[in-house]
Q: What sequence folds into this?
């Protein structure tokens, strides 16, 4: 029996609606495009295109995963970030649009204070490498040290680094926070330290949607009892690695702006500022090491 694009999508959308999947049409189309290696517009131009039996079988296997609330990004192994295609795999945090606010702010600070000079950046908790890869791509004269405690994350970050041909710019290091830099004679040499650390309290993780709490790594979500453990540690140690007037820039949870701002001020950072995302929520905190 032959099945067309229109028919297979209609059936998948019905299944997703019945399972209360938030974006049934979009998810059905994205999964099919991934298998057919087509842009979504082609599905609408050629709705009568026939689907092979092999693609059909793989499609329904993927639909079943989505019905079990697996994120679409883990099914397709793809996510766009800052206009760049990134690989994502299970065991690694899926990059969010919110994090683009952090990257855009760092690029803005570079253009204001450093361009066209060369800079050195550190990305703590690099995950898929989204922040490091996009900064390396958009800031041409940059050297980046990207750190993560997860071997799986570093494996994915390496693939993303290599795919975007940034091997000469990005050094990947395994370990917790600043530990991998000890003994490398890098203290006081960084213009930027950037981090999107785990910042969700464990009891809040339990309340998140199943596609997050059941699939994304707890290691990349939980930030200690009050969600602030990693901010405290990084704020304490960052001044030792930054140049005078070097910048520390964090992504934060929507309710953490004032607290992280206060932590940075108490640690002696100047020009501490909270930046909002497109939804008007606190999303980024920046501060400058005093001379």
A:
């Amino acid at each position: 029996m032959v099945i067309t694009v229109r028919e297979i999508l209609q059936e998948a959308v019905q299944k997703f609606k019945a399972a209360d999947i938030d974006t049934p049409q979009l998810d059905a189309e994205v999964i099919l495009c991934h298998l057919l290696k087509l842009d979504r517009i082609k599905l609408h131009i050629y709705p009568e295109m026939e689907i092979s039996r092999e693609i059909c079988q793989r499609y329904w296997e993927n639909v079943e995963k989505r019905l079990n609330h697996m994120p679409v990004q883990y099914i397709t192994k793809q996510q766009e970030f800052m206009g760049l295609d990134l690989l994502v795999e299970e065991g690694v945090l899926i990059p969010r649009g919110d994090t683009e606010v952090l990257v855009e702010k760092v690029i803005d600070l570079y253009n204001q204070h450093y361009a066209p000079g060369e800079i050195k950046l550190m990305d703590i908790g690099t995950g898929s490498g989204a922040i490091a890869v996009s900064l390396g791509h958009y800031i041409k004269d940059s050297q980046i040290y990207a750190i993560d405690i997860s071997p799986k994350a570093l494996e994915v970050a390496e693939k993303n680094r290599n795919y975007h041909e940034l091997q000469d710019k990005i050094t990947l290091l395994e370990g917790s926070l600043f530990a991998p830099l000890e003994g490398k004679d890098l203290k006081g040499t960084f213009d930027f330290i950037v981090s999107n650390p785990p910042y969700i309290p464990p009891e809040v993780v339990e309340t998140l949607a199943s596609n997050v709490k059941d699939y994304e790594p707890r290691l990349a979500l939980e930030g200690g009892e009050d969600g602030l453990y990693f901010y405290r540690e990084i704020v304490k140690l960052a001044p030792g690695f930054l140049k005078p007037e070097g910048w520390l820039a964090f992504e934060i949870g929507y309710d953490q702006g004032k607290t992280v701002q206060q932590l940075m001020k108490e640690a002696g950072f100047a020009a501490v500022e909270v930046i909002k995302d497109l939804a008007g929520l606190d999303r980024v905190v920046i501060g400058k090491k005093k001379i």
